[in-house]
UniProtKB/TrEMBL annotation:
It comes from Candidatus Uhrbacteria bacterium CG22_combo_CG10-13_8_21_14_all_47_17. This is FecR protein domain-containing protein. Residues 66-170 form the FecR protein domain. Gene3D superfamilies: 2.60.120.1440, 2.60.40.1080. It holds the Pfam family FecR. Coiled coil: none annotated.
Amino acid sequence: MKRWILAAFVFFVVLVGVWFWSLGALPAIVVPVTTLGEITGEVQVKAADAASFSSATSGEELHAGDTVKTGPTSSALIQFFNKAESKLDENTEYTILESNNGGANGDEPMQVRVRLEAGRVWSRVLQIFDLDGQFVAETSDVVATVRGTSFDLEKLPSEKTKLWVAESVVDASSAGNENAVFVAEGYSAEFGKGSSSTTGTQRLGNSIVESDWFHTNRAADKTFQDDNRNRLTESLALNRVPKAGLLKDVVRSSELLRERLASQASREALKLRYLLRKLAIIRRDVLDGNTGAALREYTRFENTIQTKVKNTADAKQVRKVLVEAHRLFIDVLPEDPAYRLKQQLEDLIVQLSDDSESEFTARFIGVKARLDESAQLFDGNNFSAAKSTARVAKTALENLSRELPVAKIDAGVQSKLMRVLLAYRVRTEALLQRIQEQKKKAQMPVLPSPIFVTSTDMLLSTTTTTTTTTEPQTGACLALRVSASPNPVSVGTESVITVQAVYADGHTADITKDSSIKTIGMSGALQGNVFIAAQAGSSHIEATASCGQETLTGSMDLSVNTPNLPVSLEISPSQGTRSFLQPISFQTRARYTNGDIRDVTKETAFQSSDERMGIQNGSIFTTYQLPGVVQITGTFTDQGVNVRASATVTIQAP
């Protein structure tokens, strides 16, 4: 009997041990590859080293150099590492030029380059935050670079390439031409060979937006985002973590035991996955209505990161985890309970930045989040909230526009960041324009049906309705006049382009809304008729419009100047010694990007590090009797840029 009791006890202990050990278990990491997903109809694949096409099979792996071709009434889906998808329409030929997930574990920036030989393809790409990662789609006419968007590309024989953007923004340029055209969501553009064959951006027409192809792919975009979020939570085995009670602490104990017993090589990776799991649990708690408990748990989590990770060698890897966790909050809007957590997470990502490049990149995460939120609010017809959220993004971008050009970072990195900045500014302006137009439509009163005056001839028994249109007699249309205000414009600011038709009798008419406007040069980008300045130089603005029976072209040059911003502040004296009730007066001088040095004492805000040591009145600090050392910091602000300098005052005992 005792043997059975002992055996049962041992069995129970083993069972509990296995259960306890399983609580901290995480699924093995499966590095995704590029595969052919769902196919319909006739789909063929030609491998890079093959001479001809062969029938395709759903699920087969694809590599760089492979080409996928669809026949009539056929389609195919190509999946790139679970980070991007391309949906091929019928009669489409699509070549994978580069397909690199990055790193042995797929945790490095994704590099994908594809070429649309002919046909039509819709691509959706998860946000790529690393500057070295990108998804590039090209045709014989255009090279389109994206870092997280949904867009539609079509190339038919003997026609220009057409680009439609459904979400975010696409950085596009004609093949062999570096001039960028930033196409924001809700807009389209056409591209031929050379800059002269590239049109400006146009609003998506109803025939596109209301088509089955558009509706089907927009629904697939949402499914793609949801699937990626679900895949992330499944990889963290959240179903093994109880939603409440002491068992949550038991799970954490199991995780700690696994960390201690893991090999040195796998321990750090395991810790990072557990960090991600903790954030996913916090997000789940908010969804379940436990917002208060979730906020308290996040506060403890953030304090741990601040005290044990910040300014350490682990900060970079932890920052990657936080960026990945941010995907869990992609659908959280300002009115949602989890919004505060979302913003705190964005702030923490910035705080863990270890250099200027990572800090700017981290700040763009917050900008992208606000723009995505604005777009979601716009789609939900909440135009006021959409406008407010877009303006928050615009303010952040204006600050970045002032800081980035004068930042002390690698020139190549700075150039990449400037393109990201410009793309987001174009998207912001596009959103604000669309929001304003929709708000006007919503406020427009419903007019009664027009009343027509009819004359009836009773003898002939006919009714005649007459409408008369009177056009101003202005003579022949001679030219287009293109102007910009202001011109020149400073980096980070905007200039409004106006197009006027000039008639033979001297009369002019504003036809900006009916004109196609484009820019040639890398000094900025256009959104509608708004030019957004990005870097010093000049851009050639060209407008085309139908005027009378003719199509006319007008142009102008727009100069972009580097803003003269403060880069440093000098305070004098930088140190001093005073006795009881002795004043010390400070002077500050600001150094600007053009080399100017200005006395800015009157515009500087001074503050002491310890009010017990003395009183600060403007630029004069008067000591108290208390001996010691105090820091006096002066802060000067110009055009949104802050520069600081400090002085040390030693107070002697009386």
